[in-house]
Amino acid sequence: MSDDSLRNRISLLSQRPFDYAAIVIERSARTVSCHVSAVVSAPAYIKYDPRGISIDWDYCRLLQGNDVDIAWDVVLTQIMGTIPYGPRTVVEHVFRTPAGATVVASQEGMTTNLPLPVRFSAPVDSIDGFDIEQNFIDRIEALFDARPLVNRFTALELSGGMDSALSSMLTSGLLGAGLLSITAQFDGIMGLAQRQRCDALIRAGHLESFSVPAARLAPFGSGSRRRMRYGVMPEDESYPEIFEATLGVAQIAGIDTLVSGLGGDELYVIYEEEEGSDTDVIPLACPFLSKAGSDFVKSAHISYPRGWLSESCWYSSASRSQRLLRHGIWPVYPYHNVKLAQFVSRLPYNCRHDRRLLRKSLSKILGNEMFQAGYVKETFDPVAIRGITENRKYLIELTKRSRVANHEFIDADSIIYNLSQDVSSLDRRVYNCLFQILKVLCFFQ
What we know:
By secondary structure, this protein is an alpha/beta fold. The protein has helices spanning about 5-15, 60-65, 70-80, 130-145, 160-175, 190-205, 240-250, 290-300, 310-325, 340-345, 350, 355-365, 380-390, 390-400, 410-420, 430-445, and strands at about 20-25, 30-35, 45-50, 50-55, 95, 100-105, 110-115, 155, 180-185, 210-215, 255-260, 330. Among the domains are: about 5-115, Aminohydrolase, N-terminal nucleophile (Ntn) domain (Glutamine Phosphoribosylpyrophosphate, subunit 1, domain 1, 4-Layer Sandwich), CATH 3.60.20.10; about 130-270 and about 310-365, HUPs (Rossmann fold, 3-Layer(aba) Sandwich), CATH 3.40.50. It is about 40% helix and about 15% strand. The chain has a five-stranded parallel beta sheet, sandwiched between helices. Strands 1-2-6-7 form a four-stranded antiparallel beta sheet, with no helix packed on it.
């Protein structure tokens, strides 16, 4: 294939509304280039070595049997909770293919051609005589309809939240009754509210439901992949134990596609001058960094060009792709779409604020307002706290022997001290940093 025809083929790919990835091997130039869409449901991971490169969608397989170097600037910003997105990972010389970019590997090293940042147009002040909710629903339905989805091979990730509620109802409306829904069920008052919402959605969509008790699959347990070296990258999803179980059932049931509400939160951009904008929020200090670590992280600047999708969309889809692909399942994220994001970004503030567009769209579909009043949002915090508490001894021993915890950048004594406390009573910032650093220690054990 000539260079011109190759460029034309990639240009045609870039016009697709969904994911794409192209890997081009140029023997004469001795380069490998990876061209990636602006959506990226499942990135590739590239391990660079002057003697050659390895590419795999499974980072565990890529790193197996190797000693690796730690990318400290990436690790420390993650511990701080800033979650940087880009081609680099927590492992030096291991890269991911990032959104809208081209990654090129040669004998000279790795280079990334980044996309240009997008510029958001000012939103309109008002829309009169326009059924905005129906227009929104129609757009998402069109995104589903453009995919070759089959009822018996498709499952719905039903959390009880608004994002998965809308995606589930629209999918069932297109594919018909009998779709499998999968839920991680919480305990307590939060769990009761979640169950009531899920039950209403299951009835409305005529779904076949399956749920697992989230608390029984808490993180860091003896059967968790986190106990394996390089088993779960710290930038991976926080609760692989739960999703290993649910995806295992889906795989046995013959599912090859999972529809999720991932990215719904990020769809409703709030601009700097609008009420509720958090652009000026400055991350607080992390109690588990030494002075050397705090000084180092202040000098670390990791950023990515702004896109129509939020960085956390790219980050979240990358984090869970491993688990899905290992089970032979492809993810469908209807909210991860450039055209949909452009549409919502221009809407008046009163449509975007508090996700009113989503709430009102659900009321239109369901014929009730259960997502508009008295909504109790679900959170994994009780599950994470249980996991840390039940595996306290293992985590303390891990900290004592960890090459990460005993580095000059980290305060191991502070980690051990806080692990020895009642985790449920820790300050929110301390708890968040503790959970982040435990994920790092597990990966590099």
